[in-house]
């Protein structure tokens, strides 16, 4: 469930400032504080807090993904400028990231609970560099001069300095109990602590150069010339990636409009490289969605061969089409399928060189950018996903030629959606084999300490961790088909196997 590539309201930001002053919408917060000329330069204004106080209860119902609720709110309040939106959205996401800790602290203090939560969220967002500047909490407090009353400033100051040791480890980690326990069992308490700390930091804005149209050094030079929030550095591992130090409005940038680069988390870029598609090959991106990885694969194929982008969501595939047009790729064929068992899939059986299965998953590896997922997923939703993941993997595998490569991937941190699915698949499909990333990626892949990034000395899984790699969390297994199995000649047998 990677959302890494989706333009996100949290990434918007411009220079519009005074959009709060005039509203035709009677239910929209109005400016109640007397005008003070210093307000023109202030980062946070009372009207932002008022919007946040209205938005938070909606988001915290968890009826829908938080970014959808936030986008809907901004549509209904179209007078808000991009900078206003960025502050309100970042503050909302800061509350979602630290919900347990903030809810506990907000038991103290005065005034309505949502005002207290909103003030805490705004202070954190102003201190996290959410608007492109890395303020410390103290200077964030100064930014709240027009927003918080004197008593509230003192209360916020106490939050900055109160001893975190008084919190339980789970509350400090801001994880629901089931996930806290699950991660403890799976990665151990030390890794769990590092992981939960990393997941509390907002994700950076990473981009991937479209190698068909641009060179990284040219785009970096252009962005660094613009300076300010456009300043960027190369990503640590992906040779096509760069990381922006702020979160500028990319849609205003000609090179972005011309498809010279795309927004894509560095982890997602590396994951696409695992498939290593060659020009002229037949490739399927089985769960293509809006095409974040499809575009990366198409560019690796130098726009030659055939790249099918399958998905059951016509809405997501519709978003892929303009991105393909902008990228200049001519080898991408979006195909809507009604399920993983669609006849269009069956027609390509045994004909495909490389298949990527970027399976629908809990998305728990993306908590830096989708913190609401930790409050919306449960152990039950994870186990419901398993059946779908297994079924998609089995159908996608039927596409592969002998000797071809299949990558099964998720952006989940949990073994249930990762190792368990692949082990079950291998048990029931002995003509497939798990390849070791240490061997297959050597030579052609970014390395750390003489190991391909994401590979492990201990096993043959490929994993990226926010705590180690500063990317979203990703899992992948690289599989190959050793032979055309008996079961393929006798589909009835295979169906029995697959339905287990
Ligand atoms: C993790 S997202 C894909 C993200 C995408 N690959 C990207 O890089 O932007 C999973 C996708 O699987 C799709 N999906 C869900 N069930 C499916 C199925 N049975 N067959 C194919 N795609 C499916 C969802 O619509 C969703 O777009």
Automatic annotation (TrEMBL):
<dbReference type="InterPro" id="IPR029063">
    <property type="entry name" value="SAM-dependent_MTases_sf"/>
</dbReference>
<dbReference type="InterPro" id="IPR001678">
    <property type="entry name" value="MeTrfase_RsmB-F_NOP2_dom"/>
</dbReference>
<keyword id="KW-0489">Methyltransferase</keyword>
<feature type="binding site">
    <location>
        <position position="358"/>
    </location>
    <ligand>
        <name>S-adenosyl-L-methionine</name>
    </ligand>
</feature>
<keyword id="KW-0808">Transferase</keyword>
<keyword id="KW-0949">S-adenosyl-L-methionine</keyword>
<feature type="compositionally biased region" description="Low complexity">
    <location>
        <begin position="7"/>
        <end position="27"/>
    </location>
</feature>
<dbReference type="InterPro" id="IPR049560">
    <property type="entry name" value="MeTrfase_RsmB-F_NOP2_cat"/>
</dbReference>
<dbReference type="InterPro" id="IPR023267">
    <property type="entry name" value="RCMT"/>
</dbReference>
<dbReference type="GO" id="GO:0008173">
    <property type="term" value="F:RNA methyltransferase activity"/>
</dbReference>
<protein>
    <submittedName>
        <fullName>16S rRNA (Cytosine967-C5)-methyltransferase</fullName>
    </submittedName>
</protein>
<feature type="active site" description="Nucleophile">
    <location>
        <position position="411"/>
    </location>
</feature>
<feature type="region of interest" description="Disordered">
    <location>
        <begin position="1"/>
        <end position="36"/>
    </location>
</feature>
<dbReference type="GO" id="GO:0001510">
    <property type="term" value="P:RNA methylation"/>
</dbReference>
<feature type="binding site">
    <location>
        <position position="338"/>
    </location>
    <ligand>
        <name>S-adenosyl-L-methionine</name>
    </ligand>
</feature>
<feature type="binding site">
    <location>
        <position position="311"/>
    </location>
    <ligand>
        <name>S-adenosyl-L-methionine</name>
    </ligand>
</feature>
<dbReference type="Pfam" id="PF01189">
    <property type="entry name" value="Methyltr_RsmB-F"/>
</dbReference>
<dbReference type="GO" id="GO:0003723">
    <property type="term" value="F:RNA binding"/>
</dbReference>
<feature type="domain" description="SAM-dependent MTase RsmB/NOP-type">
    <location>
        <begin position="195"/>
        <end position="482"/>
    </location>
</feature>
<comment type="similarity">
    <text>Belongs to the class I-like SAM-binding methyltransferase superfamily. RsmB/NOP family.</text>
</comment>
<keyword id="KW-0694">RNA-binding</keyword>
């Amino acid at each position: 469930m990677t959302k890494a590539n989706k333009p996100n309201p949290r990434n918007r930001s411009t220079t519009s400032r005074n959009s709060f002053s005039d509203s035709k919408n009677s239910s929209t917060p109005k400016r109640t504080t007397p005008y003070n000329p210093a307000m023109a330069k202030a980062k946070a204004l009372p009207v932002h807090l008022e919007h946040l106080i209205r938005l938070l209860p909606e988001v915290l119902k968890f009826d829908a993904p938080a970014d959808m609720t936030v986008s809907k709110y901004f549509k209904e309040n179209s007078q808000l400028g991009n900078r206003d939106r960025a502050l309100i959205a970042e503050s909302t996401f800061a509350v979602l990231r630290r919900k347990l800790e903030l809810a506990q602290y907000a038991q103290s203090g005065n005034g309505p609970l949502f005002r207290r939560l909103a003030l805490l969220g705004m202070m954190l967002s102003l201190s996290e560099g959410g608007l492109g500047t890395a303020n410390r909490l103290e200077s964030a407090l100064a930014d709240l001069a027009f927003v918080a009353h004197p008593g509230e400033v003192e209360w916020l100051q106490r939050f900055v300095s109160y001893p975190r040791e008084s919190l339980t480890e789970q509350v400090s980690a801001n994880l629901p109990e089931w996930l806290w326990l699950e991660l403890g069992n799976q990665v151990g308490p030390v890794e769990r602590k590092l992981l939960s700390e990393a997941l509390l930091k907002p994700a950076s804005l990473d981009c991937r150069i479209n190698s068909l149209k641009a060179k990284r050094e040219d785009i970096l030079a252009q962005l660094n010339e613009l300076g300010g929030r456009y300043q960027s550095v190369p990503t640590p591992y992906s040779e096509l990636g760069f990381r922006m130090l702020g979160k500028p409005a990319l849609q205003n940038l000609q090179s972005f409009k011309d498809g010279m680069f795309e927004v894509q988390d560095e982890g997602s870029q590396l994951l696409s490289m695992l498939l290593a598609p060659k020009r002229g090959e037949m490739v399927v991106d089985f769960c293509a969605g809006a095409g974040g990885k499809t575009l990366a694969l198409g560019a690796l194929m130098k726009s030659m061969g055939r790249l099918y982008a399958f998905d059951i969501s016509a809405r997501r595939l519709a978003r892929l089409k303009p991105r393909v047009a902008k990228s200049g790729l001519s080898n991408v064929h979006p195909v809507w399928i009604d399920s993983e068992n669609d006849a269009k899939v069956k027609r390509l059986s045994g004909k495909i060189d490389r298949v990527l299965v970027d399976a629908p998953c809990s998305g728990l590896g993306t908590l830096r950018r989708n913190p609401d997922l930790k409050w919306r997923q449960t152990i039950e939703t994870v186990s419901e996903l398993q059946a779908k993941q297994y079924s998609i993997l089995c159908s996608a595998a039927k596409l592969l030629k002998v000797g071809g490569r299949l990558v099964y991937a998720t952006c989940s941190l949990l073994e249930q959606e990762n190792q368990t699915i692949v082990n079950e698949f291998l048990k029931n499909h002995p003509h497939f084999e798990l390849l070791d990333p240490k061997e297959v990626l050597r030579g052609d892949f970014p390395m750390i300490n003489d190991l391909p990034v994401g590979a492990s000395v201990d096993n043959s899984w490929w994993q990226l961790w926010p705590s180690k790699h500063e990317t979203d969390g990703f899992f992948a297994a690289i599989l190959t088909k050793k032979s055309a199995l008996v079961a393929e000649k006798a589909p009835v047998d295979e169906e029995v196997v697959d339905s287990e």
